Amino acid sequence: MQTLPTPLYSAQQARDIDRMAQELPSITGFQLMTKAAEAGFKAIQEYYPAARKIAVFCGAGNNAGDGYLIAALAINAGYRVRLVSVVAIQKLQGDAAQAKEVFLDAGGMILLDFQTLDNTTELVVDALLGTGLDRNVSGKFAEVISYINTGMPSTSGYIPLK
Fold first, then answer.
1. 123 located within any domain
2. What pLDDT sits at residue 106?
3. For 54-94, how does the pLDDT look when each residue is reduced to its tens digit (9 = 90+)?
4. Coiled-coil segments, which residues (predicted)?
5. I need a surface site. Which of 2, 31, 38, 155 has the fewest CB within 10 A?
6. Among residues 65, 52, 53, which one has the least CA distance to residue 18?
7. Which residues of 66-96 are buried (b: 16+ CB within 10 A; e: fewer)?
8. What is the mean pLDDT of residues 32-41?
9. Assigned domain for 22 exists
10. Residue 8, domain member (yes or no)
11. Three-state SS at 151
């Protein structure tokens, strides 16, 4: 039987781990987000080494912040990155808003319509919704999830939306 390379946690366990880490006096929420993004980007490099053209889909919460930082790391590593925000970027707050600025400072551009993506995407990064998801997905989120699930390779840091 094949084992998974890292443990999987339930949404509640992931929230508890995040909360405990943020309570440590030695780490800020943004530092924790940065570490998550670094680990996510490292996993992309390891598991999808040929994927150099990525599309990152971001929502509004801290999971979106992870996506913005992964996208910034990818740009700095020479990847072609297309980032699509599914919400108005003015809705970003706190650490996620700071992550958006890091992405823009890296030379990133934010797209508001996923239908403007071309068909050369080699990997989709799902940073839409995190462990706080407690409702049925509808509207633009549902449209984007349908697009992501058309068969292209995809990865997610928290909850893959399939």
1. yes
2. 98
3. 999 999 889 999 999 999 999 999 999 999 999 999 999 99
4. none
5. 2
6. 65
7. bbbbbbbbbbeeebebbbbbbbebeebeebb
8. 92
9. no
10. no
11. coil
What length is written for the chain?
162
Helices 11-23, 29-47: inter-axial angle, 10-degree rounding: 130
Chain centroid, CA 81 distance in Å: 12
State how far the Cα of 71 lies from the Cα of 39, in Å rounded to an integer.
13
CATH number reported for the structural domain that contains residue 62 in this entry? 3.40.50.10260
Q: How many other CB atoms are found less than 10 A from the CB of residue 7?
A: 6
What is d(CA 97, CA 90) in angstroms, rounded to the nearest whole number? 8
Q: Residue 45: which domain range?
A: 29-156
| 3 state DSSP class of 160 | coil
Q: Look at residue 42 in the predicted model and tell me its pLDDT.
A: 94
